[in-house]
What we know:
The complex is a heterodimer of chains A (about 475) and B (about 260). The longest helix of chain A is centred in the middle third of the chain and has 23 residues, at about 255-275. In chain A, helix 1 runs parallel beside helix 11 and helix 3 packs across helix 5 (about 85-95). Chain A is of the alpha/beta class and about 475 residues long. Chain A has a domain at about 270-479: Rossmann fold (3-Layer(aba) Sandwich). Chain A is built from 18 helices and 10 strands. The longest helix of chain B is centred in the last third of the chain and has 23 residues, at about 185-210.
Amino acid sequence: MAKQVSPGVLALRKVVDDVHKEAREAKARGELVGWSSSKFPCELAAAFDLNVMYPENQAAGIAANRYGEMMCQAAEDLGYDNDICGYARISLAYAAGVRVSRKYDPETGEYIIDPSTGKPLKDADGNVIIDEATGKPKKDPKTQTPYLQLDNIHDIEALPDGPEKERRWEAISPIRQMRIPQPDFVLCCNNICNCMTKWYENIARMCNIPLIMVDIPYNNDVHVADENVKYVRAQFDQAIKQLEELTGKKFDEKKFEHACANANRTAKAWLKVCDYLQYKPAPYSGFDLFNHMADVVTARARVETAEAFELLAKDLEEAVQKGETTTPFPEKYRVMFEGIPCWPKLPALFKPLKANGVNVTAVVYAPAFGFVYDGLDEMARAYYKAPNSVCIEQGVDWREGICRDNKVDGVLVHYNRSCKPWSGYMAEMQRRFTEDLGVPCAGFDGDQADPRNFNAAQYETRVQGLVEAMEANKQAKEA
Amino acid sequence: MSDIFTLGIDVGSTASKCIIMRNGEEIVAKSLIDVGAGTSGPQRAIEAVLEDAGMKKEDMAYTLATGYGRTSLMDGIADKQMSELSCHAKGASFLFPNVHTVIDIGGQDVKVLHIDNGAMTNFQMNDKCAAGTGRFLDVMARVLEVKVEDLGRLGAMSKKKVGISSTCTVFAESEVISQLSMGTDKCDIIDGIHRSVAHRVTGLAHRIGVVPDVVMTGGVAQNTGVVKALQEELGCPIKTSPLTQYNGALGAALLAWQAASRRR
């Protein structure tokens, strides 16, 4: 039976589809399209009616579609080191014109199917059909996909107009993340990570386009000092000036205020959605929250996003009332998942959690995008606080608060090879979680975008160990 | 009441170990085959332990598998599988009832377990890097042209401290080669290797907290040089057992006994 999708989820999917569609249409009309880091003040771009795309979400999507390794390797071939963030590598390869494309027969124009792809073919009773010649399961042709290869839009553009050129354009993977327009400007705010600065400088240089930068220094203090607010406010003013020069328009304060109101409304609805994870059992999983990150990042200043999250909150309220959940197994244990998921390995990530009844009921990354403010000073303060720009005390406080509210039994930490600043302080955080909350923690190696940095067997042992430790804790408490 | 016999099988990355226990109290038989997951090792180890005990597989009330290759035995051989983490905790608690910290250095991973009342309540494991694991010592022994089981004895003859600073296995290998080409005494290099392993493992142990009694398990615990270096780094005594290599299988046999008792 097809999985039921709630009206809120459908509305959220439409928002992201629309953001992408509008950007592609704007580009086709010859209008400017920018690329932005996830926590750049989108309210500023909205005041100029600019279409903006988000490379971090794009890279996550590319990785989840299993193109991460190809794109990372393409970036490495361009000279970018393997140690650089996987999102950055994917984005830099894309900015250089690299695309994942479907292989086709030049004579027939047909895509060449990769026989290793696809799901097993099943009969009417749901039994797998075995190929008598090979003794292996037959593949369902509907689920098989073509061989993949890399192409480059600059090579395609250089071709003379004609069917071959059209065929190559068409052969580029149809996923929306592979169809994002090339940037005309970049908006960078390094609150979310420091690698961002060089990443965006490289895109700007590579594509010869303006870079609008908002610098947020790492904060050693829990509070944001007034001089820090002043520093960021001045940069907002500078960014507005640069955007005026870029667009040839005056800053529209009304549109800006409207965008701020929408962003605040979205944030409140998003935080409400996040809070539903506090219910026991939770009506959904933290991984579902990750799926909605695209909305809160790419479209938080749109009224449709606020409305879609409000609708989702309503759906969740109903699910709680009915005792329903999207988690396809009974919730035996509740954990906080620390860090960004390994997008290329989501099924492998989920498998041992499902097998052991572990529901992810707390994530720190998602609520970090739910910030509410009143006025420009508070907006500057809000943008000052992001997962990688705050001190360890603040980071621990956020996480332990979520762990308590969402009643977790343990913590699963992703030591993300792509994100050294985040993973670097996790060893100490793990120690504090156990000391302060009395819960076991397990860490595993992985990567948000590059599948080469994840080992399923190692991960499974760590999850199993965590489950056994949570069980021992539970039994000790009951005793 | 008749005796309950349980079988614990630890399919590691480099060796397969079995233990048969009577009533969760007494070790009846044990076996060790020097090849692990994905080889004939597990089957041969099972045959050997049954032969040693003079028993048949049907005599086992419960069989529990652990180790890297544990899931491969769920196809009709084992009744249940558990992670090597819990099994090492259980085995160490049986051998040393006052244990609170277990350091297990296996073929391809390092684990530090925190134990409360005989159960594992938290743990730390190494990352993907092989440094500090049994594999690291295998590689070094090969470069030095000595047997891995002789490392402890040879390291004890060291007269001069030599620092092996690299934590990467490949880099450390080239560092050892450089030392050899400079004419450094092998025993001094081996001692340096032991201290390098101890330093890395200590870092991991401190993440979780070191609470005495500290017990070391796994094949590397047979290397007296590593144990001594670890004691110095941690600043506390470390207990080991002649059954160290069997500790995972022992824990598995004990947990199998618990499961069998519940089933009754």
